[in-house]
Amino acid sequence: MGLFSPYYKALIRVPQTALRTSAFRASASHRILILLLGVTVTGTAATAAEIDSDTTTPIATSTADSGSPGDITITDDGEIDVSGSEGTDIVTVDSDNTVSSEGVLIAEDTDNVVGIHVTTGRDTDLTIEGSIQLIEDYDREDEDDDDDDDGPLAIGSDRIAILVDGGDPLTGDILIGDSGYLVVEGNDSAGIIINLCLMGTWTFRAVSP
Question: Where are the domains of the chain?
């Protein structure tokens, strides 16, 4: 399922009250101790990679923690701009880690680009309180003075804000909050595509730009 059309442009929002809270969240500063049949096993919670400034470098959960898997947090001061880098996934979820973004994921005048790409069979949560902007500097004009704009609706193509691969389902929630929105401009482009199914909650509210 998904939101797909030859040309798609939308803002998607959801009330903050829909956000799920968990009874326990481990952080990098906590150690977890497990006792099982006399065997002691210790482990460290996944460390979150935090982006709090402007960068042009895409990021993946599988290498987010200094080359190891980790959660990704993009603060409201963070921005990843891949404009001009065709064929790029701005954020890739290729391990069982979460992504939370209050910042900006952007690509302007760039084809074949994905804002957040979730590979098959992931156990993850996506929380979007910022924006994903896959846009182009193009406006239709009335070239023959007939009071109607002429030309194609868009000139770029293959832009997807959130893409979930098929194969095995995604287990987890996709939450787009009160301040979150997606803007996608292009042919054969989409806001959200889930290729198989979501075993969790997909919460959003579509509004006009």
Answer: 2-207
